Amino acid sequence: LGKRAVWLAQLLILSFSVFSPADTRRKAFVFPTESVTLSVPVQKPLKAFTLCLQVYTALAHPYSLSSYATRAQHNEILLFREKPGLYSVSVGGGDLTVPETFYTPRHFCVTWESQTGITELGGWKPMVRMSLRKEYTVGSEASISLGQEQDSFGGDFDKTQVLVGEVGDGNMWDFVLPPEEIRAVSTGGVSIPNFLNWQELKYETRGVAVLHTRLWPRDRI
């Protein structure tokens, strides 16, 4: 009975901590095998957003960096590496492709706003702006996954598209950051996120994902 009580106590602690806050400052999730996603529950429609994250990987095959799915649209927001030198951004199922002009470790910022549909993928070095899903609203009650694309709400993952590497500094705002703030964020500056804050992250891991001190320095190129 004593051993069973201890086992039950451990089980309850683990279950309670699945969506508990963790100290993720100066740390990154390491995906050592083709395995996992990190899900963050959010419940708010979006008319604009800025999504930034740092990625470090040696993979050559296609993989998902960040997947934001709702029950109505599994590609509400998707940042995907199609092949070496080519990335794609999807909003509401529509997508555009962007050639690579930066080197590892990579810091990405995706911006989009509904009124004009203006979309940009960049970071420290801005890229050409395009228009995507004008007057669209990104759905609420979403599941956000890092490292794997969702082909349905919170599931239907393809192991051939998984990211094996590291992801850190993932933040999101419900508005478009101006270029000077994006440059500041890309070089370690501060712009406090109001939608998803890496330093106050609540997450659920599936498979093998380990939180370690990140490899890249605070200042980025």
From TrEMBL:
One of its GO terms (cellular component) is extracellular space. Residues 25-217 form the Pentraxin (PTX) domain. It comes from the Eukaryota. Residues 1-24 form the signal peptide. Keywords: Acute phase, Calcium, Disulfide bond, Metal-binding, Secreted, Signal. GO terms for biological process: acute-phase response; innate immune response; negative regulation of lipid storage; negative regulation of macrophage derived foam cell differentiation; negative regulation of mononuclear cell proliferation; positive regulation of gene expression; positive regulation of superoxide anion generation; regulation of interleukin-8 production. Pfam families: Pentaxin. GO terms for molecular function: calcium ion binding; complement component C1q complex binding; identical protein binding; low-density lipoprotein particle binding; low-density lipoprotein particle receptor binding. Its cofactor is Ca(2+). Binds 2 calcium ions per subunit. Its main location: secreted. It is found in: Secreted. Homopentamer. Pentaxin (or pentraxin) have a discoid arrangement of 5 non-covalently bound subunits. Belongs to the pentraxin family. This is Pentraxin family member. It comes from Mustela putorius furo. The gene is CRP.
